[in-house]
Design a protein that fits this description.
binds N-(iminomethyl)-L-glutamic acid; 412 residues; binds fe (iii) ion; 16 strands; alpha/beta; 8-stranded mixed sheet
Length: 412
């Protein structure tokens, strides 16, 4: 089954050679092709070029993209999309003056979501999560990382991870699962955090690895959650079982979490709202990609990750949503793109690179996703008629997407 997309006003993120990441100054460059066509065979991009060379190409289906822009779907490398219920009361509590930290300290926050998750049936958890997934696919996400972390018991963590597995089987977008057992210290372990870390190391990691329910391992490395020593122990034990680190660091405090991630060859270090020069230096000598989550900064009114400092230091940067019920109840990558440009002073080219090819790198899939390259998966956004690609982040809050193609199939 072949599909031809013809008369494309501009085809974005066209990479002939298989680029897996873009860094520093190169992030300002977004290779494009004007007046282009693109040919899909089954689930793969097989050809593209100028419309002047399109004569004679025949396909089973043709889509006319006159006036429209085509780009790779978003790669959202950091989400907690599998969760039970919502936390809109905490949102109101924050408006009325409580801080995120105060809410967590009185048993709300992650512990609130964990209680809901422990009490929900696997079936209900699946249907709530599937709805969110369908929504983000319509918003142009074609690859997504999903974390556990609201279980806080072996049974509930396994329930979350089985739901992720079922989503993988049912939907054709790319899904990568992460074990985030160390998301918060459960009430029962309030005075025995080491006991909980031991449980993670001795029971949860082996069980999850043996069942092949996750590819990555995450830790919320933060004051009041898990410290450097806990992070060190958990990452080391995860690695023994083949789980690669992708970790939450520097959301509220910078105290060496970035270095700890790099020490364990983390694929990514995420959040980084607080970032110091040492962190930048340690990232310079690594293959670890920093990931910014601007919707989280927006929602919690905390600082934005210093994208300019990161990129101007020659580093790569990826953008993701952090979709979760507490700090980011939104999985809209289009909003992430706008917010990165408006609040973090990223150029549209940098933001698009960060949300496509670098997002793919941050989830270990950039050999097959994240750019318009022959042989890569046919995961494409076709926009509505827009004046230029700058218009996408500029006209924030509007839906500029006409159609989304995932794995060669039209989904909306
Ligand atoms: O990435 N910071 C840790 N975890 C999530 C939020 C968790 C929650 O509040 O439910 C985050 O922001
Ligand atoms: Fe997160």
């Amino acid at each position: 089954m072949t599909t031809l997309i013809a008369n494309i006003k501009e085809l974005l993120q066209v990479r002939d050679s298989n680029v897996s990441i873009v860094k520093g100054k190169d992030m300002k460059i977004l290779p494009t092709l004007k007046n282009a066509y693109l040919l899909i065979d089954d689930d793969t991009i097989v050809q593209y070029g100028s419309m002047t060379e399109c004569n004679g190409i025949e396909a089973d289906t043709t889509i006319d993209a006159n006036g429209k822009i085509v780009l790779p779907t978003w790669c959202d490398s950091h989400t907690h999309i599998v969760y039970a219920g919502n936390r809109e009361q905490e949102f109101v509590d924050r408006i009325n003056g409580l801080s995120y930290e105060e809410i967590a300290n009185r048993g709300g926050g992650i512990l609130n979501s964990a209680e809901k998750l422990q009490n929900i049936s696997e079936e209900d958890l699946y249907s709530q999560s599937a709805k969110r997934l369908e929504q983000v696919m319509k918003q142009g996400t074609g690859a997504i990382e999903i974390k556990s972390g609201y279980g806080l018991t072996i049974e509930a963590e396994l329930k979350m991870l089985r739901v992720i597995k079922r989503l993988k089987q049912h939907y054709n977008l790319k899904i990568r699962a992460t074990l985030l057992a160390a998301h918060a210290v459960p009430k029962e372990y309030k005075n025995n955090k080491n006991g909980f870390v031991d449980l993670i190391i001795n029971k949860m990691i082996p069980e999850v690895a043996n069942k092949e329910l996750a590819k990555y391992i995450d830790v919320f490395c933060e004051k009041g959650y898990f410290d450097l020593e806990d992070t060190d122990r958990i990452l080391e034990s995860g690695l023994k079982y083949g789980l690669i680190p992708k970790i939450h660091v520097n959301q509220f405090n910078a105290f060496g979490g970035v270095g700890m991630g790099v020490k364990h060859h983390a694929l990514s270090v995420d959040h980084l709202e607080e970032l110091n020069d040492e962190d930048i230096d340690v990232l310079r000598n690594s293959d670890t990609i920093p990931v910014a989550l601007p919707s989280c900064s927006y929602f919690l009114s905390i600082p934005y990750t210093p994208a300019r400092k990161i990129i101007d230091s020659g580093l790569p940067l990826a953008l993701a949503t952090d979709y979760n019920p507490g700090s980011t109840p939104s999985g809209n990558m289009n909003f992430v793109l706008s917010t990165a440009c408006i609040k973090m002073k990223m150029t549209p080219e940098e933001a698009i690179n960060a949300a496509t090819i670098n997002g793919a790198y941050a989830m270990g899939i950039s050999h097959r996703y994240g750019s318009i390259t022959k042989g890569k998966k046919a995961n494409l956004i076709i926009t509505k008629e827009v004046p230029s690609y700058n218009f996408l982040p500029y006209a924030f809050g509007d839906n500029h997407i006409d159609r989304v193609i995932i794995n060669g199939q039209l989904i909306s």
